[in-house]
Design brief:
Layout (H helix, E strand, L loop, with lengths): L2 E4 L24 H7 L30 E2 L3 E10 L2 E8 L4 E9 L5 H14 L7 E7 L2 E7 L5 E2 H5 L6 H20 L12 E3 L5 E3 L4 H5 L7 H18 L1 E2 L9 E2 L9 H4 L5 H10 L17 H9 L50 H31 L27 E2 L3 E5 L23 E2 L16 E12 L2 E6 L6 E8 L11 E8 L3 E5 L5 E11 L2 E2 L8 E2 L2 E8 L1
Parallel strand pairs: 11-12
Antiparallel strand pairs: 1-6, 2-3, 3-4, 4-5, 5-7, 6-7, 8-9, 9-10, 13-24, 14-16, 15-24, 16-21, 17-20, 17-24, 18-19, 18-21, 22-23
Helix pairs in contact: 1-6, 4-6, 4-9, 6-8
Amino acid sequence: MAERITAAVDVADNSGEQPLTAEADQSTSDGVAQNRERGTEHDETEGSGGTEGPGRKTPPPELHSGHKLAGRYRLEECVTRLDGFSSWRAVDEKLRRAVGVHILPADHARARSVLAAARSSALLGDPRFVQVLDAVEENDLVYVVHEWLPDATELTTLLASGPLEPHDAYQLVSQTASAMAAAHREGLAHLRLNPNAVLRTSTGQWRIRGLAVNAALRGISSDTPQRTDTEAIGALLYAALTQRWPYESDAYGLSGLPKDIGLIPPDQVRAGVHRGLSELAMRALANDGATASRHESACTTPEELVKAIGEMPRIRPPEPTFTAPPEYQSTSYQQGSYGRPAPHPGVTQPVPAPPPPLQSRTGKALKWAVSALLIAALGLGSWQLADALLDRGGKPDDTQTQTQDGSDKNEKQPKPSQPLQIQAAREYVAKGDAQHPNDVAKTYDGDSSTYWRTSSFVDGPVLAPYKPGVGIVYDVGAAKELSAATIGLYYGGNHTTVELYAADSLTPSSLSSMEKIGTVTTSGTTATVKVTKQVKTQYVLVWLTALPFASGDQYSNSGYKQGITDVKFLG
């Protein structure tokens, strides 16, 4: 009888993670020692494993591409074979999506702990982790099915081309620390948090794979799990800043630190490293209760690390750079010399003589025909001009002057857009509690560092049906026609949906009483909404109906949230 647990996310259309690299591990009871031992790990080639795991009585069954589990999961490619278990890229034929599968014999010494870890991870249901979709025991096999993320890239791959930019490194440590703090609050640890276990998606979000499961597969445990995971996050940040592994041994395609010099700060390893992030990495890399940081105390839990990140000034993404187009270069073809040899400097070129005129009878006839056509055209044009003057009483109409391109000078030209001055604003609450009504004025004070923020929501990005949306009503002083609105957003990534409504007052009675005049969805930090329906209004509602996922900060926990920094209207 098969024993199975299926996560709630199994009904969603999820994709799976990038292939795992096979790495040898040794079990240890000391988490910090295990984290340091990761520096000595080496990748094994596919198929080099197959050694018997501890306590295994029988060799694993022969699995191959095309083999189907539970009549549903078709194995495609083996990506890891190590210590009695194997990991595969597979296809869920029921939901028609790629998945990953870990497989080991049911009598393997670690089979029970792997099932328990998979069940605990599946129940967490945090979207910042690669989700466990199924955990099954049947036909003398135990297998764990998880997401496969085809649009995500391992940190190992990202660092192959160089260290991360400060903003990317900040997002890495912020999102990873916040996710692990949430996991530890539920009693879950990772214990194998390395550059192969963190992935960046195409939207810029960081995902962690193998929570609890990867350690169970390799028999890893720790007496200080929070300290182990915190030091691992510090090692990830150190590698992201320096492209070096913060131990003496090389690992994950990264060179280790020079021998016999100890742990030195990232900003002493590579020039130009962000000072605050360098200090943060050293606070997380606590060694035997001490820290290499001279100014701040060590962070020994993910929660302490999240608090330290919240105390840092926020690192904004770099401004986009634009390349000027190349200057116009004339060509020899435009000069009428295409296909001719270039003249030598200092040599005067003879002026080509014009072709001789046509002297034959045909040439004469052609000249008479052209002359006749010109005379006819002139006569027709004079007749049409006279007719037009007679229709106007013999006087030209001075009010219908046209330009050279044929456009009417007196045609009404559209007025250029003008910025509208915001006179007042008030938070609008359609359902539930208000967000932060006392911060509304910060959205039009001219200071981009101040902002109004929403609460942090567990579900998202779309707020409905729990809330129809959140937003602010603005008073522009008088009834005017709007052409566009520009809204500065505090968080990028995922996506934010902004809608504009024409309201009848600062305190509208309901959302249905207002008229929708524009909408836009963006993944950046600026939303430009073009008005699609022209109406005159004095009051405009900026309404957020979908929010991006963001990590925790000094104001709120991680979740789906957004902030508005600047609002500008054009009329």
